[in-house]
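Appendix B, Record 12. Input sequence as logged:
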Amino acid sequence: MSLLIKLKHEAQEVGLVTLYFFFCFSVILTLKKLLLADYQVDVQVVSLAAVSALIIAKVVVILDHTAAGNRFDTRQPLWVAAVYKTLVYLGIAFMVFFLEKVFHAYRETGLLNQAVSEVWAHKDWNLMLMKLLCVGLTFLAYHVYAGLDQRLGEGTLRRGIFERPQPTHGPGCEG
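Logged structural output:
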């Protein structure tokens, strides 16, 4: 497989997922920006939403190809598979959020154990819960959509949502 074909496949696979998460994170971060505007706190939302969407989309696509990501896809009702995936992906997202904070603290302190202790000591449970709820809801919607699309036939749901219906020429239709 040539490099161009691989890049095209990767862009298609990760691109739509990235757009979905970019939209969701943009909405969430815009709400945050609007809430903080009353306190004269400026938040950059576009760059944060874009970077977060790229990271989360790549993680989701990778997890979708693992046993943990598709364990219940064909043996359980859709809602069970979607809730399971959401919880697994949310746990991994929590670890990524935590490790990101540890990385920044490590750059300041130079000591890993001190960085972990500092991040854990200065955690804001309300903010963390808000982030996890928002990200969890975006994961849940993604998994319900992806599960429906897979069960109906790859691309069927997307075409049903984004394409115009084809005119039919049957009984009761003019044409």
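The chain has two domains: 1-53, 66-156.
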